Predict the structure of StlD/DarB family beta-ketosynthase.
Amino acid sequence: MKEVYITRISKFLPNRPISNDEMEDKLGAINGKTSKGRRIVLRNNQIKTRYYAIDDNGNITHNNAQLTKEAVENLCDKDFSSQDIELLSCGTGSPDQILPSHAAMVHGFLKNGNTEINSPSGACCSGMNALKFGFLSVKSGQTNNAVVTGSERISSWMKSDIFEDEVKHLEELEEHPILAFNKDFLRWMLSDGAGAFLLENEPKGHLPLKIEWMEGYSYAHEIEACMYAGGDKLDNGFLKPWSEYPTSDWSKKSLFAIKQDVKLLGANILTKGVDSLKKTLEKHNMSSSEIDYYLPHISSYYFKENLYEEMKTQGVEIPWENWFMNLYKVGNVGAASIYLMLEELVNSGNLKKGDKILLSVPESARFSYAYALLTVS
């Protein structure tokens, strides 16, 4: 089996950073009314700026595949071109269409010749699953290199016009015409961007990161769907897909909007996350004290203190000084977030040979968790 190294890291964030006060101007006010939930959500998540693939005139500037293509091209130079890519593995929770696959669309924009492609689906863990596919391909000797990506273009899913038919329908029924919090909540949480890694079987570059191992866990056998799009959750917890609704309900119920069951999230995301972390460390006979940098993808700083307390409860706490996050300035970019964190850490100048970095990514869709341990070579 080969060793596998992350030898290059890149990112692409569209347009300029958007402040909290500009968000509703970009996304639009539903029914012409300012969201009552916006300030509450922003106060809790503590995100200050984020990026949208929307210009100042409200026009869309990039789709998801284009964001990803830009990140991939930012990996390349005269020593490694897009023509050299042997495997392209692209994860996202917000593909531009159902078919073709996200990786196929990225490959179409790259126009870099024939190559193998892979498109993990899901939400935040799709970026880690893209990484794992590339990791296993290079490790097994199937390919000598792989480019792996995580990306989101979620802003177009959150624009006010997506919800106008639902609010109009509520008015016609003489019900309270305010968007349910489980839909409004995520409008103030998510943002756009892409990140990419080059994986190779040799420690090239100025700061190669050896991938020691990767692990993944799912608790879908225990817990119903928590974050979902393309369907609606029934009272019994069953997720009914869009294809089983009449077309007239697609907009009336905002079936394609992304939704979050915030009560289910709060009850499970931390306990299951730390349970999976503990399982991972035990499997690899590793103590949490051995981790020099802990990169947790959290959707909101609201969870930070409680995550640490749950770690203490389960005996796997990692000291605060070893945590590294950049949520406050790039926002929650789903599958891309872990790529953006590692890119910033590598470029900070703080890493030294032998440092161990733990990547930790939860996915609230139906409670999945992914981990990777890296060593600075």
Observations:
- The chain has two domains: 5-211, 213-221+259-376.
- The radius of gyration is 20 Å.
